[in-house]
Amino acid sequence: MTTLDQVRKGEDGVLVIGNHPVMVQSMLDFDFLAGKKDPSVVGIIAGTRKAQKFFFGTKEILIPCFASVAKVPQALQTRVKWMLNAQSGRRTFDSTVSFFERFPEALGGHLFAENIPERHATELLARFGAKYVIAGPSGVGILVPGFLKLGAIGGVDLAQIEAGKLNTPGSVAVVSTSGGMTNELIRAVAARGKRVSFSLSIGGDRFPVTGLERVLSLAESDLATKAIVYFGELGGSDEYEIVEMIKAGKLTKPIVCYVAGVIDEAFDEHMQFGHAKALVARKDESARAKRDALSAAGAIAPASFPDFLKEIEKLPGESRDRLFDTQPLMNRKPSILSTRKIVAIEAVPEFVRNGKLVKQPENAFA
């Protein structure tokens, strides 16, 4: 069973490390619109707080908070399969190591911060790169439509979730190092009548924990995925990994690629474009050279972005969208004042039932 199969079978429990309420709320909105009975976010590592308030649909809920991963109660531990690390770059290493030491049976995670020290990134790669599926550093996360939204992937508001058809499982995998372009491609795929099977933003820093070859291998082995859409850029050698996979017969599904950065040829010296890797160091790292190599290997690699979008439109895939009314969610307003204090989650065992977060019991407030 692949990681994607496990997600589609319901292994979606997320432990959030750090404070990013907008991103967390977008994940809860995704869960609700996907028809889940329970939120995927089972807890937040947030210092001295006892709980944080969010919406699940139109109702306010409390997500329990804990001082450290070691404080997560046994009843919740069995459900934790994913980590969303929203801490700063310099704090990400220690908290990530702590998470996987505490939850060795987890499936993976997302490192949201950019500019994680390279010695930390390479150490995370050495420790966890082969065992877990980890998006980042510096990306937007992992998406399995209808089942898992880990991070800001696909957008953070209801309009973006709806426009990307994030709750309809599809047949096109979307892969990119760029977080922004990952989100743009998800929306572009949806706008052309296709639906996404899964998406992973590898991350724009120099040393992503889960590299391109591993992600494409997931797509190749995934029965739901019929084709792949990839966005790359000048600099680095990622696209040559695609070339070698095609030549070796390890990647047989149709892949449509766009490599941005031909404009670099207009300058007297190579320019740094956005991400840490987006700088040509050798002639074969230019956007044109990589695009030509992809085409020669058998990938579909158009010369212009409009042609790239036209090729996406030709890909196989039809899906029936899940219909939902987002208007009630647009009008919700959080309560401003509570005159009752929240008691410690540990003191309310009914708050957790069978390892799943349930509605607050009557005595959740004192």
The whole-number mean of residue pLDDT values reads 87
Structural class, from helix and strand content? alpha/beta
Radius of gyration: 21 Å
> Which series of helices and strands comes N to C?
HEHEEEHEHEHEEEHEHEHEHEHHHEE
Summed up, the helix count is 12
Kindly report how far apart the N and C termini lie.
45 Å
What's the overall geometry? globular
Main beta-sheet annotation:
7 strands, mixed
Q: Give the proportion of residues in helices.
A: 25-40%
Bin the strand percentage. Answer: 15-25%
The beta-strand count equals 15
Which stretches are poorly predicted, pLDDT < 50 over at least 5 residues?
263-268, 275-282, 338-357, 359-366
If strands are numbered along the chain, what order do they take across the biggest sheet? 3-4-2-1-5-6-7
SSE blueprint and pairings:
Blueprint: H1 3-8, E1 13-17, H2 21-33, E2 41-45, E3 51-56, E4 59-66, H3 74-77, E5 80-85, H4 89-102, E6 108-111, H5 118-128, E7 133-135, E8 142-144, E9 148-150, H6 158-163, E10 172-176, H7 179-191, E11 196-201, H8 212-221, E12 227-233, H9 238-247, E13 255-260, H10 287-297, H11 305-313, H12 327-330, E14 352-353, E15 356-357
Parallel strand pairs: 1-2, 1-5, 2-4, 5-6, 6-7, 10-11, 10-12, 12-13
Antiparallel strand pairs: 3-4, 8-9, 8-11, 14-15
